[in-house]
Every structure is written in C-alpha cells, then in structure tokens.
Protein: Nickel pincer cofactor biosynthesis protein LarB
Organism: Paenibacillus apii
Amino acid sequence: MDNEALRKLLTSVQNGELKVEEALEDLKELPFKDLGFALIDNHREVRTGVPEVIYCAGKTVEQVRQIIEYMLTRDNNILGTRASAEMYEAVKAICPEAEYNPIGRTITVRRRPVELTDSYIAIVSAGTSDLPVVEEAVETALILGNRVEKITDVGVAGIHRLFDKLGVIREAKVVVVVAGMEGALASVLGGLTDKPVIAVPTSIGYGANFGGLSALLSMLNSCASGVSVVNIDNGYGGAYCASMINKLASS
Amino acid sequence: MDNEALRKLLTSVQNGELKVEEALEDLKELPFKDLGFALIDNHREVRTGVPEVIYCAGKTVEQVRQIIEYMLTRDNNILGTRASAEMYEAVKAICPEAEYNPIGRTITVRRRPVELTDSYIAIVSAGTSDLPVVEEAVETALILGNRVEKITDVGVAGIHRLFDKLGVIREAKVVVVVAGMEGALASVLGGLTDKPVIAVPTSIGYGANFGGLSALLSMLNSCASGVSVVNIDNGYGGAYCASMINKLASS
Amino acid sequence: MDNEALRKLLTSVQNGELKVEEALEDLKELPFKDLGFALIDNHREVRTGVPEVIYCAGKTVEQVRQIIEYMLTRDNNILGTRASAEMYEAVKAICPEAEYNPIGRTITVRRRPVELTDSYIAIVSAGTSDLPVVEEAVETALILGNRVEKITDVGVAGIHRLFDKLGVIREAKVVVVVAGMEGALASVLGGLTDKPVIAVPTSIGYGANFGGLSALLSMLNSCASGVSVVNIDNGYGGAYCASMINKLASS
Amino acid sequence: MDNEALRKLLTSVQNGELKVEEALEDLKELPFKDLGFALIDNHREVRTGVPEVIYCAGKTVEQVRQIIEYMLTRDNNILGTRASAEMYEAVKAICPEAEYNPIGRTITVRRRPVELTDSYIAIVSAGTSDLPVVEEAVETALILGNRVEKITDVGVAGIHRLFDKLGVIREAKVVVVVAGMEGALASVLGGLTDKPVIAVPTSIGYGANFGGLSALLSMLNSCASGVSVVNIDNGYGGAYCASMINKLASS
Amino acid sequence: MDNEALRKLLTSVQNGELKVEEALEDLKELPFKDLGFALIDNHREVRTGVPEVIYCAGKTVEQVRQIIEYMLTRDNNILGTRASAEMYEAVKAICPEAEYNPIGRTITVRRRPVELTDSYIAIVSAGTSDLPVVEEAVETALILGNRVEKITDVGVAGIHRLFDKLGVIREAKVVVVVAGMEGALASVLGGLTDKPVIAVPTSIGYGANFGGLSALLSMLNSCASGVSVVNIDNGYGGAYCASMINKLASS
Amino acid sequence: MDNEALRKLLTSVQNGELKVEEALEDLKELPFKDLGFALIDNHREVRTGVPEVIYCAGKTVEQVRQIIEYMLTRDNNILGTRASAEMYEAVKAICPEAEYNPIGRTITVRRRPVELTDSYIAIVSAGTSDLPVVEEAVETALILGNRVEKITDVGVAGIHRLFDKLGVIREAKVVVVVAGMEGALASVLGGLTDKPVIAVPTSIGYGANFGGLSALLSMLNSCASGVSVVNIDNGYGGAYCASMINKLASS
Amino acid sequence: MDNEALRKLLTSVQNGELKVEEALEDLKELPFKDLGFALIDNHREVRTGVPEVIYCAGKTVEQVRQIIEYMLTRDNNILGTRASAEMYEAVKAICPEAEYNPIGRTITVRRRPVELTDSYIAIVSAGTSDLPVVEEAVETALILGNRVEKITDVGVAGIHRLFDKLGVIREAKVVVVVAGMEGALASVLGGLTDKPVIAVPTSIGYGANFGGLSALLSMLNSCASGVSVVNIDNGYGGAYCASMINKLASS
Amino acid sequence: MDNEALRKLLTSVQNGELKVEEALEDLKELPFKDLGFALIDNHREVRTGVPEVIYCAGKTVEQVRQIIEYMLTRDNNILGTRASAEMYEAVKAICPEAEYNPIGRTITVRRRPVELTDSYIAIVSAGTSDLPVVEEAVETALILGNRVEKITDVGVAGIHRLFDKLGVIREAKVVVVVAGMEGALASVLGGLTDKPVIAVPTSIGYGANFGGLSALLSMLNSCASGVSVVNIDNGYGGAYCASMINKLASS
C-alpha cells in the first residue's frame, strides 16, 4: 500500500500532474506517515470517544487548567488522573460539564458520547482501602468505552465472600485485580478464571509492605498462569491494558 | 444452570428416581463442581490440544520422567519448561516423539493435533542473549495453539532495525517483548502499537542489572500505556498471557 | 456430620417433608456452610466478647464513625486500631462508653463483658519509644480476653533490668516481644524462656534502621528457637497470634 | 522458692551442717541456677525424648561426626539439619540406628522413645518443590514429640485441592504453612482456620522471587490475622514454634 | 617547570637575592602550589565568567544570603541551585541584578560577561514533569558559557516526536538526556547519535519508580554505548559534565 | 574477689555475726552485683561528670521535661540529643542553667564540673551541611570530658583544604569523620593517620544517596585499615566511641 | 540537504532520467537514510579502524567463533570482550593474528591500521584487583584509536602514590577511574583535575560491597563535579565514553 | 619542625654548603615528606614487628607467591589473609617458616620478633560457624603485637554461657565481637562492658540473612553505646581497629 502511494506520487511527477515542489511537500511528511507513527496520534483525534489523558500529579493547578483548556479546543473527551479537588474547581470554571471522582481523584469531560462494549471488565479489589486505585481504574475503563463490573472487599482473608462473586467475575472478558498488603488475591483469582488477569499492586499496608513492594513481588511471582502486572497504584494503567484486551475480545 | 441441576437432582429424590445415598454421592462433589473449580482442570483434559505443563527446574531427571510418564497415560499434549538435555534423554526413552528445544530448554510432546489461530502473537526481543527466554515463549505459544511471529535482535540501540519489522509487529493481536539490560524496548514498542504488550524482563546483563531488576523496574515504569509485565525470565508466563488474549481476539 | 446434614435434608425431600424449592434454598448456601467458611464469621457474631476490628488508618473520621455506628447495631465489642483522637471524638459522640488509649491509638467499646483467661500473655518491650506498639498489643490482648503482664524498658543494653523481670515473663504462656533498633531482645528472651515468642519489630530508630528493617531481619534470623515474627509495628497482629496460643493453652 | 533454697543453705552454714567451702561451691553456680538459665539446658538432658540439635551446614563431615559422637555419650535423641548424605554415612558408621531423610536432609537418632501428642500439627505446602522444607519440618516435629499431618501440593492456583483437605487442617492445633513464590497460601489458610498459623517462606521460585523475599514479604503482610513468620526455608524453626504451641495446647 | 621555579628560588637564595625567611614564606605554600591543587581554585577566580556555585538545599535563607554576599565581594558570577523563592528575595535585596528561574530553582548573578561557545549542548527531556531538572541543567550550562538547545517532551512513548528533533540533537557536541520513569530515552538517543550522552535520571514517576531508582538502573544498563550517568535529579551535575566536554570539543 | 566476699559473708553467718535473714537480703542482690551488671549503672551516678543521656526524638515536650526533671534530682550532668527548641524552652523553665545548641539540637546541663582530657578528639567533616551531626558529636564529646578539635569543610573534592589541617588531625588520639554523599573522606583520612577513625555517615545528599546508604556502604568498604562505622547521622554514637578510646589513651 | 537529494530525485523522474520503479527503490530506503539511522552503521564499516564489537559472555565458544568468522569477511577490526581463553583458541584457529589479553579477557583483531590520537586518555585504578576492568578499558581505548596512559594502584588509602602520578593524569583530555570497594578515588580525582572523569565502579570487595553497589553509589554521589558513571565492571563502556570525548577534543 | 628543616636547607644553600642541584633533589621529595604521607610507609619498614599485609582473595597462587617473595626481601613480618591451602604450599616452598591457619585462612611469616602488649583484646564470637572470621581476627591481632583472649560460642540464645566469661571480657581494653545471624551479641556485650566494642558481622546464616545484612544492620542499630562496626566477615579489619585502640591504651 505504502509502495502504491509512492508509485502514484512518482507517476504524477513523471506525468507532470504534480510539481516537484508539491511532491516534495508530500514527501517531507513521509518518514512518519510511512512508519505509521503519526497514525496513532491522528486517529486519537478522529476516533469518537477516545479521550486525551493528563497525569495531574506534580503539576500546578494553573498548569492543569491550561492543558485542559487547550484540550477542550479539540473537542475530545478528557481524563485527568491524580487530580486534586482544587484542580477540579479550576477546570469546572472553564468547563461546567467536567465531573470529579473524589475517591479516584479523576476529572472526566465527556464532549462526545462514549459507547460501551457489551462484554465487560471485572475490577476486583481486596479491601476498602484499595478504593482510590479501584475508582481510578473504573473511571479509566468507562471513558475508554468499556462496561465495568466492580467487585470490592473480597480479600482472601474471607475467601467465601470471593466465591459469592465468582460468577460475575468469570463472565468478564478480562479481570483487573487491585490488591495491597500481600496481594494474594491475584494468584487466587488467576487460578479461578481462564481469562487474562491484570494485577495492580497497591501501596496499602504498613511496615514490611515497603510502599507496595510486597504486593508487587507477590503478583510477579504468582503461581497461577495468566497474571501480568502493572506499576504500584497504577489503576489507570491496569484499566488501559484491560480495555485493549476487552476491545480485542469484543471486536 | 447450577440451580437447574440441583432442582433436577432433588426432584429425582422426591420422585424416588434417585436414592438418598446416590444423591449424597453426587452432592459430595458439589462444592467444587458448583463453584466451577474443577471445570478448568477437567476441561484441560477434554479440550483437544491443551497441554499439561511441568516446570522441570529443581526436579531430578527421574522425577521429571515419572511425571511425564503419568501424563502420557492421559494422552494429552505436554510442555516441560526449564528442562535439561539429560531430562530430555530420559523422556525420549519412554516417548520417542518428544521434542527438545535446546535453547529454550523445553520438552514438547504432541499427542493430539494443535490447530493454530489465524491471528498471531508477535514475540519480539532485544538481543541474541535473550534467546532462551524467547524460545521458551515461542514453544509455549505454539503448543497452546497460537500462530507466532518471532522478531529478534531489534534492541533500541539500533532502532532502525526495529522499524524494519514494525509492519509485522503491528499486525499481531498481542505483542510479547523480551528484553534484558534496561528493557527500553517495551516502552518503545508500547508507543508504536495499539495492541496489548506483555513485557518479559530478562536477567541478561551485568553489574547494576541485579539479576533482571533493572529491566523489571523499567518495564513496570513504562511511560507507554498498555504494557503489563510478568516475572523475570518468565517466557512461559508471558506467552501464556498472550495466548489468552490472542484466543479472545480470534474467537 | 456434613454428610449427616445432607442425608437428613435429602430424606426430608424424599419424605415430602421438605419441598424441592425449600431444599434448594438451603443447598444454595451449602458450598460455604459445608466448607465451614462462614463459621468463622458467624461465630464471631455469636460468641460473647469477641470484638469486631477496624483498622482506622487511611480512613476519614466520617468513615470510621459510620463503620462503628453500624457495628454498634450488632451489639458486639469493638476494637479500632491506628485511630486518631479526632476519630475518637466522633465515635464518643455516638457511643459514650467508648474508650481511647492515646498512646496505643486504640478505640475500644465493651458492650459485652470480656472474661479474662487465668493464664497470661507477657508483653515485653525494649525502650519507651516502643510504647505505642506495646499499648496497641495490650489493648488487643485484653479485648480478646487475655490477662496481660506488661514489662517495659528492658532492652538488652541494660540486661540486668531484664533479669529482674524474668520470673514474671517465664510464667506466661506466650511472650510478645516488642523491639526496634536492632531487636536483639527477641533473641535474648527466646533463649531464656521455653514458651513461644511472638516478635514485633518496630520502626523505632533512625539511619540504617530503614523503617524497621533492621529489627525485622534481626528477629527473622534469631539464633534462638521458638521465635516467630509479625509485621513491623504490628502490635495488633502480635497480640492476636499470642491470644490464639494463650487460648489454646488455657482451654 | 529460690529464697527458700538460699535460707536453707545459710541455715545449714549457721548450724555448722555445711562447711563454708561447701556452701561456696553451691553458691558459685547460684547466679545461673537462681536466674534459671541453666534450667533449660539441664532439663533438655533429663526430659525424655527432647533431642539435641545440630545445624550441619557449613560444618565439615568430620566436625559433624565428632559433635554427634559426643552427643551420643549423653544418650539423648539427636536431630541433625541441613546434613549431606556424606555426613550421614559418617554418622551411621558410629551409630547404626541413625536415620536419614534425603529430601529433608535430616539425620535423626532415637535413643529414647518419643511419645507423640494426641493433638497434631498440620504441615501444609503449596508445591512439590517446597518438599525439602516440608520434610525438615516434619522430621523436627516428630522428634520433638508431635503427631503430624502432612498436606502437600495445595497451592492457591488450584484452590479446590486445598478445600478438599480443609477438614484435616482445621482439626489441627496449629498449622505450619510452607510456600514459595508469592506465598499466598499463608493468607488464604489464615482466613480459613482459627488456629495459629506459622508461615515458612521458601526460596522456591525465580526472577523477582529474590531468594524467598517475595514469599517472606507476602507472609509478613498477610491480611489474615493469626499468621506469624519464621526465616526463609527454615522448616526446623517453623516446626519448633508449632511444637511449642501444640505442647501447650495438649498439656 | 616546577623544578625550574624551585631552581630559580634556590639560586636566588644562593645569590643572596632572596633572604632565607622570604624563601621560607614562598616554600610554605609549596606543597599545594607544587601539586597544583590551588590552581583550580585560583584560576576559578581569575578566569572570566566561571561562576561560584552554592547548593542552597538544607541551608537557611539567612545562610544563603550571607554566602552570596561574601561571594559578591569577589566580583564573580554566581550560580545558586535548589534555591527557594524566599532565598531569591533575600539575595535580590542585596544584589538587584540577581535572576531567578522558578522552575529550575536557580539563582544566577552575572557580574562578568559570559561568552558562549559556538558549539552547543543539547538538553533533551522525556516529559514535562522533568522540567525542573532540565531548567537546572540549562541554567548551569549557560552560566558555564555554553550555547544550549533545549528539546522537551520527546519521550519514547511517542517516538516520532523525537525523530522530528533528531537533526538538532545530532549537531550538538554532547547530549544531556533528562528522563524519569523507565528512562528509556537515554538508550534510544545513545543509539541515534555518535556524541557522548550524559544521562540524568529523575525521580519523576510513582510506585516501583522508587525515587528514581528505575530510571537510574535503566540508564546504567543502557544497551547503547557512549552513555554515562550522574545522580538522580542532578541537572547541575549533568550540565557540568557536558560543559567540560563541550569546552574540550570547541577549544 | 567475688569468692572472697562470699566466703566472708558465709563465715559471718557461720560465726553468728550475720543473721540468716540479713545474709539473705545481701544475697538477693547477688546475681547482678556478682556479675557486675549494676556496676555500670551505679558508677555512672557516682563518677563525677558522667552525664545521663536522653534521646528526645519521638518523645513529647512534656515527656522530655519530666524525664529531665527527674534526672535533675540526682544532680548529674545531662545530655539531651535530637531536642527541639520547644523542648529546650520547657527544660530551661525548670533548669535555668540548661544550654541549647540549635544546630546540633542538644540540650546540656552541667551540674558537676567536667574536667577535659589533655589529649583530644578530632571531629572532621566534609561539608557545611554535615554540621548538625558534627555539633551533636562535639557536644557529646565535651560533656563526656574530652578536649575536641573541630575541623569542618574539608571534603575530598578540594583535598588541599584537608592537607592544611592534617597536622592538627594527626595529633589527635582518635578521629571522628562525619561525611555524607559518597563519604570518601573516611577512607582518605584513614590512609593519612595512624589513629583509629570512627566514621559517621550522614544522610546529606540526594537521589541515589538513599538516606545515607551511599556514605554508609562507602565507609564500611573503606580501603583504609582502622576505620569503623556507626549508624547514619549518629553523631552521639560516634563521639561516644571516640570518647571511650580517648579516655583509654589518656589514662 | 535531504531536501536537495529528494528534489534532485524528483526532478530526475520529471525529466524521465529516472524510471518510477528505480525511484521507488531509492525511496524505499528513504525513511532510514533520511533520518540518518543507517549512517552510524554504514560509516562503521567504511571508516578505517573502527572495530566491530562482540560481547562474548553468555555465548558458546562456537557462537563466538562463527560471529567473528562472519565479521572477518568484512575486513574490519574486531574487539571481543569477556572472552574466555577457550574462545580465543577457537578464534585464533581461523584468524592467526588475533590477540588475547588474558587479564582483560579481550580478543582483538587488527585488520586495518589504527592511528592513535595525540591526546590521551588516562586510565587510573585503585587496586591491583581492579586490573581485569582496567585491561578491558585499555584494550577498548586502544582499538578505538586513542593513546592511553595507564596508572594503577593509586587508591586513596595511600594518597601520596596518587600525587606522584598527578602530572600525567592532569595532562590527559579525559580520565577513566576504575575502583571498587568504596570507590573514593573518583571523587578525589574529580577534585584534582578539570577534565571529565568517567567512573567505572568494580565489584571488587566483599561483604557490604554487595557486588559493586557500594562503589556505584559512591561514584554517583561524588561531591566533585564533572564525574559521570557507567555500569559496574564495565571497562568497555567507560573507555567508549572516554574515546568519544577524546576524539572530540582532538578533532 | 618542618620549617626548621627547610630553614636549615635554605641556609646551607645560602652558605654554599649545599649546591642548588643537591637542594633540588631534597626538595623534590618535599611535598610528601612535608605532609608526612610517606612517614607511615617508611616507618612500617623500620618499626620492628609491623607486618606487611596481602589480601590474597582474587589473586592467583603465582601472584601471591611473587608478592610475598618480594616482601621477604625487606625482611618484614607478613600477614596474608583469605589465603588458600594451595597458596600456602607455594609460599612455604620459598619460606619454610611460613605458618598457615586453615580455619582463618591466614599465612603468617615472622621474620622479626613480635612483642605482645600486656593488655589484651577480647575476641568474642556467637557460634562455631563464625570461627573463620574469629581466626582471621586472632591471627591479625597477634601479628600486630597484641595479647588476645578468644571466647567462642557464647551466643545470646544461651546467655548464661556468656556470663561465665564476662570477667575475662571485661578485663580487656577493647572487645571484638564476631557474630552472624541477628548479631545480637554486639548489643548485649555493649551493655555489659565499658570498653570500646568493635563489631564484625558475619555472613553466617541463611534466608533473610541476605549475606550478612541482618547482622550488619543489627550492629549499626545497636541500642548500646560504644559499638562501632566494620565490614561483613572482615575479621582482619576488626582486629586492626582493636589493635590501634589497645596500643593507645597500653602506651
């Protein structure tokens, strides 16, 4: 195909249909177009409902406001993660339809309708303290266009609660497991489902938890097959991976 | 459905079609059947081409031989990982069709035909030293029934080699990236494809590589979305995750 | 016994004493009942004096208040750990008999009388800075129904102080050792008593203490037999283990 | 009592029944006797069936032989841990009744009959690779006089196998959990039993297992109460703690 | 030469041109002069435009003010790093021409003209969050007399943006790469240029970033040759190294 | 000697010079006296000028005030380390002669005259940021009765400054080296003096300093003989060791 | 310039001087040529004396032999690092002029003359145990075309030996410092020269050296400006960086 | 004094008693002499009984033989540490009076008589596995001219054994504590003696011992004052520090 486009261009030059300078302009963008790099970025902007994402942590309120103000000019949906309430106030002033999830610390703007998949992602968590990460994952999955089932507080210390929910978990196309402390839920669920499990370790815990290291190592060493892991507390990343898989499964 | 089976059983007891003791026998297996635990294990044995897996490291040659001898009685396909050449010799003596991949250190036995998916998994690696992990991943993906495209030696230090192969990588349904040292290939590929990337850090390297820790941390901290990570040198695990996704995508 | 219950149920169905739908209802809960999962939770609520526990850290004052308000409806005793004074104020407003241990940061509510064991747990600590962990352990042991002997400030740097208290320590059924810095007290006491020692490393110290890592590693490497370890600063966990043992010993 | 012994001694001196030099001899041992230090060691030798223990790793064959030769003169039972087959051969030459467990790498000599408790210790493990640690724990528990139930290969990746064995586990007085990789079994079992759980992390695994660190951190961060932890691969230590508890519970 | 100076001095003494006491005074400074230690310090003060540097973190506002006040008496250029806005206010009061870079947190005073090199340093960064480190590097490079090209936001997740800037990067004499998270940019650039790359890992990121450790290890393990690394967040250090190289290349 | 005291006591009993009950009282204290445990504590109180020490960090202002109030009743000298200005105010209110070193964060009370040794301790530091640790060491050494020479800002980056001070350093009986960052000063000084060097790593630095770990490891791996190390930032501990040595050397 | 080439090509097509298919062939390689990716690789082969490099560790003797056999067909110089004596024997059989440095474990083949720079690299090391890394650095620097001055055994524990060599070190354009243990030599030399210092930490040492971590952290935290660091034991990498700088300085 | 020497030299030049070239020769060595660097080295050779030390690990048998052969020409005493039996055989061939300590792995050659101090160093160890480090320390202390008391197997798990030896320990001028596992012995002894304690952590242990890290951190965090620490397994270093102190105390 690329070859075809090039052949056509060269033939046009040969035919005199295209001037050298015009062809030159076209070719100057060639390296990226050819390699398809720009495709990703371009089609982000054209495909309905794919949001632009801003990681708000470490930015000032003013910086967040300005970036989102610029994004709004492109009329896309927007997802801001790790956003403070103060940031939300500043965004709301310029975009009244912006919504805030105070637990998940996300700002969402829906300028275009988001159609949800029929299949769904199960987002499962061990304890109530993992909720901020769960909510970040849920908001991400939703704005990326996925149906979501949220199952919370099914840690392995009371494993019967997990079995109660096993049906709904096993019907999902992909499972996101959010767990801190010893992160055993990922292994247990990995053994109970035949769907991909994306494990999100959280920094919940204390002492020898070492900021999420214990859950991270647990999940990487899962004795169950089919478990892969994203960064500590990275609810966004877990949901993004799950969304990719769910989209593949439902297409 | 479970309820249906139970109602039917109880009605049979009520009707006198089933004796109490017979019903009791059936119900004794209920907890697992009901919860579907056993399904996974059972359907492993019935579904054509799904292999039984044995992790050979830390076992004696004799133990490996005995386990595989037992597996052979069930007439399933078999995948042995981290197997020595000596182990293979012992297995070959009892199963002449067993095959050995000396680089990937896998033993494979194909008793039932494995039908490959149309879609494929791209298994991409940075350097030639990563080959053992790559080969383990390839053998795993194949025996699980996936078509595989193997692209090796496209590390980021010579990034033009990667671009040469970008077409075939981007046509895959899921990408397995195998890389040691700084593991940058996962991030670069994560930014160049819109498919899920399963990153397998390897222990290749020296000094501050710390047995694969540098690649592991790199991959977990990938600035590209859509990258999830399995354990260091875990080619089997990476391919298993990828197979789950590829199967979802091709079903 | 389980079999007995099932046989009885089936016979009732056979006899027509129980309708199929009624039996179905009973059986739906079977997997958990059968396995005994729910027993733990259920008997928590029925056994007098066994408290419900809430880990308050990372929760808002309002969340703690609501959870405890709900617990109060079940008329159980309550233990809140890692609770701030502000949390206590909010709880006291809805439950005047709630008590606060400002050093151990525990809230306790005693709705049912707690009968203490005859035998006791010795809770021994190295320095005055370990007191918060000690007090959390003491409050936990007490509300779980154990007699407690608290021995503080007997660190190994002044080992004669420890010998002064050796009599009372050796009469305990189980010893909880709370120590930070180098945590040597666990090893020394492990060699001086023939009772189980539960070691609680604390994050007390500075520099190469690394948040309790030094005491944790020390205790895990104890040259004395009979020492097991819980998480850093986990006074609650240490007392919980000790209570289990003390109850076994006194039953 | 100590005071009584002293008063009696002094009265004997006063009465002339005891010479000053004789009393001096008695008093010279006073500091230890008084403090009870020596009790432990002395009663080891007098109480039937309490073994002397030798940690063989890092010693030469000759050193092990000499130490055991000396121990044999005291006619006690003996437990040698981390012993090579070569060490066993050397010991057998001087003590034909010595036995060797080649998986657990233990040498045991039973010179006095060991009476087992009625109650038992459940020693539960996740995978077959954990067997060396399991066997060390079993041999230790047995020679210390405990009845043992060994349950192997019930890792959480196939959790239904665990439930099959739950009955026998829950009847134990204390549970030793031996698990490598992510060590999730300790948390799961901690939630399924109301007995003390002694967790023994193993170095089984690879990659980010970091020599047992992943299982160790998992177990220390267990979300289930009642779990305490001993050193990595320390089957002896885990069984020793469990024996102390079992003896308390059965006395 | 040193020998020459000494011979001359001794000859002067021999000739009576120099008194013993005068020669003694000269010789007293000999050890340092001879070894050239003092040269560095002395020529700092005499060479135009070489700044004096003060690391402001951990100092009080008053201390910074006093040190800079003293430096001003020597009429040199000054660079203050890790300076707060409050510190700048205090300095401005005594030196109105002082300038402040609020992002890079640098104070600069230019008392002597700084002539920039013809060749330049390329300072390249992955994300906008790395800007504080970038700005510190830029200010350092400028006051040390280097021309600088700043290229920001060219992280590997969107690698086409990097290629857009490749021309200007490759024309530099030395490249400073500032990157957090997985730090892959250093390896990618190392493979795309034949100039020395100084990599500055940043603490940007979260979770398993561990305060910059992931980027640091990545960069140290770079598969591209020609990459060397300075401390985490050390923009000053990276620019200092680059300046040394750029000066060598342009002399 | 102990034997002598015992023989005398027993003889007195035999002679009827001492009653049994009186002898019993004496013997009750025997274990400690005999072993000499209490000697240390007792002679602290009797030897002039030996201070009582209180580690103030982690204590409340009120706790510090009360402890020092109690100490004052024994009329000893007092050293409080890691004390805040607020703590000092509270102490000054009850003890007007108390002094505060705001950099070293020490409170000192001199109730008895402290006679300084003729020989001295050299306390040498690399950078001005190490001053808090230096000052803690100086105050400790002084109140323990040592003459002190303080040499600051002689880091190895400008090694000629160190040589300028080498004379005074080499005349000391023992050298305390306080250094952060890479802690190279300890090795350099270890090679330049034949006196014991006590190295105190500080947490000064940033990035891969990891809270003092870099300096700590440096000092432990010193290529110079005669260097031993205390905990990070432990100026008190370094000076205490040095004082012991200086006292031995000057006695 | 790129534009010029393109314009010329298009004009040739327009003029009919170049057929469409021929132009297509040229354009197919455009993306890489344009971006200059391939330049590096191509000019390696054309520029006299630039070696091809093979990292031999982890490869079999046969693999090394084959790779070098292939390289020989291109008539380039060759550098093999981390090569065993056995590998060298295999290479020598097919290339008699191959040379082996048994300490540095390098194989070198010089097919084209290597012209050395006038300016030189100083390669300085602390102890004799660092020699393998030094020799690897020396061989690398030489075959890359640099004059080298090797200064060994000038560790900071005997700093006068370093001063003896300071003249030759300071005349270099760039200094490579190879040091293990505490790696202080890098900081000391960084303060004594105004040239770039490339620090190579080595794994020489024991105990808390942790495989080179102590020297690595030391060097990263160097208090001297102008020091950058490569991976542990990476003599090749250090020399490569130095060569780049030396070439810039001598061009 | 230095000034005196210089004045004298200059006066001799002035007087014509010394030629310029002769004075130049003298002055060329001035920098080191002046600074006193060389003094250490020189007086090593002149002071009777001070050994030359060679660290044999990582050297070949031939290298060790050659180095010692050279040392023998200077007629000094020699201490070789970490020496294999094979190395000893090679040394013995050229120096029949060489002695070997197979446990401590030391070679010692006594060419000059070593006079021992009256006061002694106590070298105390926890377990028999620490003996290699103890023996290295003992051999070092002896050849450096110290009287030594060796007390082994007094670990804190059986603390009464330690008290038995307390008298001899407390009479020492300085105590070297060698301990692995949790290293608690250093803290316990630190509290029982008023002499400096040099703690040598050993790598004895397993699991979470992490190669001696647990004992190292324990000792650094010792709650007893007066404890300083050397590198893991560094018996030589511990004895060297102790010798410096003992010499100061006995001079």
